[in-house]
């Protein structure tokens, strides 16, 4: 992951437990994230959960489908670590698919679609072109309801290690720390958080320059959490 992409990850203006990272802080944190020994000791924050309502495209009978999508937002520092490790994993996975001859098959969630450097839109276009070019065939379409919510965690660990291969001790610990926190999915509802903060006489957000956060410091957040378990 280059610094430009990392910078975008950690400086988005949404409000979370911590502040978006400033120019100087981003450089220093980028160096830390590259050190597995730091990641092993990093304290991950809970996700903040909320729901968004939106309308799907009208059906043939012009009926508008309303849908609710759950959203979970990570803290700015955590976003930097997740982004960096996601990039490492994607590179490993691209090599893994090529070694096993499935790089043309597994196309989802691959940055730049792996070694080919094309987008998912291009891949979809290739599929349609292939269908148009054959005389007959079957197209299978399917979906898993709640797929990510119901993944077998032991299977995740097994397949992750298969893709990553053998890793030195501290690197192995860092990967397990990052993935372990994702699997725990420690989260707090946004509305619940707001109510607790109001009861404890905390403002909805605090400012540092143009940036906003829920708390002024990690110490203040720690005090709040210890009193509102």
Using brief descriptors, characterize the structure shown:
229 residues, mainly alpha, three-stranded mixed β-sheet, two-stranded antiparallel sheet
Question: Could you explain how this protein is built, in words?
Answer:
The structure is a single chain. It is built from 9 helices and 5 strands; from the N terminus they run αααββααααβαββα. The mean pLDDT is 87. A hairpin with a 2-residue loop joins β4 (206-208) and β5 (211-213). It has helices at 3-10, 23-33, 36-41, 76-99, 120-132, 153-164, 169-184, 190-199, 218-227; strands at 47-55, 66-73, 187-189, 206-208, 211-213. The protein has a 3-stranded mixed sheet. It has a two-stranded antiparallel ribbon with strand order 4-5. By secondary structure, the protein is mainly alpha-helical. α1 crosses α2 and α1 (3-10) crosses α4. It is globular and about 70 Å long.
Q: Give the helix/strand class.
A: mainly alpha
The main sheet comes to:
3 strands, mixed
Q: Shape from CA axes? A: globular
Distance between the termini: 36 Å
Q: Please state how the strands of the largest beta sheet are arranged side by side.
A: 2-1-3
How is this structure best summarized?
This protein has nine helices and five strands.
Which helices and strands, and how do they pair?
Elements: H1 3-10, H2 23-33, H3 36-41, E1 47-55, E2 66-73, H4 76-99, H5 120-132, H6 153-164, H7 169-184, E3 187-189, H8 190-199, E4 206-208, E5 211-213, H9 218-227
Parallel strand pairs: 1-3
Antiparallel strand pairs: 1-2, 4-5
Helix pairs in contact: 1-2, 1-4
């Amino acid at each position: 992951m280059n610094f430009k992409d990392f910078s975008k990850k950690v400086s988005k203006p949404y409000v979370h437990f911590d502040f978006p990272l400033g120019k100087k802080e981003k450089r220093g944190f980028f160096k830390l994230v590259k050190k597995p020994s730091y990641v092993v000791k990093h304290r991950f924050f809970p996700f903040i959960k909320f729901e968004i309502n939106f309308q799907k495209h009208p059906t043939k009978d012009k009926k508008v489908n309303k849908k609710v999508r759950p959203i979970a937002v990570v803290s700015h520092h955590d976003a930097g670590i997740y982004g960096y490790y996601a990039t490492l994993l994607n590179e490993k996975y691209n090599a893994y698919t090529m070694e096993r001859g499935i790089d043309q098959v597994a196309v989802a969630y691959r940055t730049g679609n792996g070694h080919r450097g094309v987008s998912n839109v291009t891949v979809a276009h290739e599929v349609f072109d292939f269908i148009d070019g054959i005389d007959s065939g079957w197209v299978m379409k399917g979906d898993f309801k709640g797929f990510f919510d119901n993944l077998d965690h032991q299977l995740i660990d097994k397949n992750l290690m298969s893709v990553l291969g053998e890793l030195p001790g501290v690197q192995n610990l860092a990967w397990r720390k990052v993935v372990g926190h994702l699997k725990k999915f420690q989260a707090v509802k946004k509305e619940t958080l707001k109510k607790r903060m109001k009861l404890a006489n905390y403002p909805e957000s605090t400012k540092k320059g143009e940036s906003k956060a829920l708390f002024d410091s990690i110490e203040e957040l720690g005090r709040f959490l210890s009193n509102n378990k």
